[in-house]
Design goal:
By secondary structure, the protein is of the alpha+beta class. It contains eleven helices and six strands. Keywords: DNA-binding, Transcription, Transcription regulation.
Length: about 260
Amino acid sequence: MPQDQHGELLMPSGTGILGIHLQGRYEVSAWPFFQGRLPRIYLIGQQTTSYRLKVFQEDADIFGVALRPMAIWRLTRKPAHLFSNKPTPIPQVFDQNLIEKLETIPGVQSFEERIRLATELIEELQAQMDLTKTLVDHALDLIFEEKGCISTRELCKQLHVSERHLQHLFRQQVGVSPLQYARITRFNSIFVEFTRAEEPRDLPFLTSFFNYYDASHFFKDFRVYSGESPSQFHLEKFALLKELVENQPYLTQVQASAKNPK
């Protein structure tokens, strides 16, 4: 898709992403973590900051698969923090057999066929994973249940584990601290409600419902993730972000699937 000179704004999704360029290339501006052109096919873990996608030289089209928070750790058996905020080319992650299967997706014209191939690939990968539920899985369930409105201390209390141990496990298996992940989850949750609410929005109710101390704390988070205040922000300026919000954001789907696992 063609873009303006500033590129498309996207926010931390709370998921890992397997990205495949179908044509052209995107550049990413995610200061201070990554600046530059994305690999043609890449894997990226948890993102802790907003970023902008900008077309490199020509129109670009990209196909992405959202991965559950612990999927990259289960798939690679490497510490998840190695992939946080960093797009990694797939030859550094997967074997040649899997790379060849991924390479077939850009050549498929039908979106439905791409979905079918990607689904078969993910199911094949899942069959190779150890899906035994870990302490971090239980912590994520609590974070999703509370829409991110839960402290690390409360997580530790409910799970009967030390804060230091839980932080270590999250860094290894999710790629960020439990505090960071809860904050991303909370902001994703309130951002969806904020963008879908009719004007005038009831900010005191929204901020109170999502455990913000007051509206100013929400405004601060909003500026961190969008670069603008809530009053200045217009979703219509960001076509890709608008599409994601209207068609269920990644993290909303992850939370729903966590409640109803296959």
